[in-house]
Amino acid sequence: MEKLIEKANTLIEAIPYIRKFCGKTFVIKYGGSAMTEGEAKENFALDIILLKLLGINPVIVHGGGPQIGIFLKKVGKDTKFIQGYRVTDEETMDVVEMVLGGMINKGIVALINKHGGKAIGLTGKDGAFIKAKKMVIRHKDHNNKNSELVDLGRVGEIKEVDPSIIITLDQSFIPVIAPIGVDEHGESLNINADLVAGAIAASLKAEKLVLLTDVEGIIDEKKKLLSTLDRKQVKKLIKGGVIKEGMLPKVRCCLEALDQGVSKVHMIDGRVKHALLLEIFTDKGIGTEIRKE
């Protein structure tokens, strides 16, 4: 009986959040172990369907870097990274499109549909709604002194997101978006999924941007989870070197989304069962929430 009462209390706790978020848009960056482990994938699909049934409009942007790497290895293609970006020649771009726009995207769509949802797969090439340009970065030599501009091939940075294709979809559908953009010549460009999620969230003026990761959230210098932060506190942690390396681009993406109209951003551990529901519908949450002020 106590367990049943506890379940009922959890539902009661969720009521104000359901009321508050009904009709709102959440953009969810789906990546990490939640994308590769069988049970985690099933739980994610169920969480998304429940959000939709509760009147929330989830928009999913997925990654797929590890899966791309595995497939490239299978076909005997070497992978080179510069500052965390995969150098993407024509042959690699073919694999990226096949894995992201085909295998992964349609797999997520099929999983949601299997459990009773209505998902539809898109890439930024559909309606050319993610317009991009080639990214060129400045890379330093081994001595960390001299630098040169490096062409990463078919790696892109976002110029503009036109959300009309998402807005005009039948509201019963759940968009699942692969992070592939298109340049002015109609050529495909491989774009970081965190950046795509942030830009789409900003274009939709989303209530929330949620990043599913393989870490608890933002950790302080004492290895303690920081459950709530504002922009000033985040910038202080960056300046102090507490937020660094692989977490830096994710956090900067979060700050840009806030600057462009997203209400709140959450970084949560996708390895936790029903992580999305626990973060959104409970008082304490499980990850890090970042707000403007």
TrEMBL record:
Q: Name one GO biological process term.
A: L-arginine biosynthetic process via ornithine
Provide the residue positions that the database annotates as binding substrate. 64-65, 86, 190
Q: Which GO terms describe its molecular function?
A: acetylglutamate kinase activity; ATP binding
- Compartment list: Cytoplasm
Q: Which Pfam families match?
A: AA_kinase
Pathway info: Amino-acid biosynthesis; L-arginine biosynthesis; N(2)-acetyl-L-ornithine from L-glutamate: step 2/4
Q: Taking the first listed entry, what is the main subcellular location of this protein, grouped into a coarse class?
A: cytoplasm
Write out the entry's keywords from A to Z: Amino-acid biosynthesis, Arginine biosynthesis, ATP-binding, Cytoplasm, Kinase, Nucleotide-binding, Transferase
- What class does this enzyme belong to in the EC scheme? transferase
* Site feature (Transition state stabilizer) residues: 29, 250
Gene Ontology cellular component list: cytoplasm
Q: Tell me the ranges covered by the Aspartate/glutamate/uridylate kinase domain, including all copies.
A: 24-268
Classification via SUPFAM superfamilies: Carbamate kinase-like
EC number, as in UniProt: 2.7.2.8
The reaction(s) catalysed by this protein are: N-acetyl-L-glutamate + ATP = N-acetyl-L-glutamyl 5-phosphate + ADP
Q: What does this protein do?
A: Catalyzes the ATP-dependent phosphorylation of N-acetyl-L-glutamate.
Instruction: Give the similarity note.
Output: Belongs to the acetylglutamate kinase family. ArgB subfamily.
Q: What is this protein called?
A: Acetylglutamate kinase
What is the organism field in this record? Candidatus Schekmanbacteria bacterium GWA2_38_11
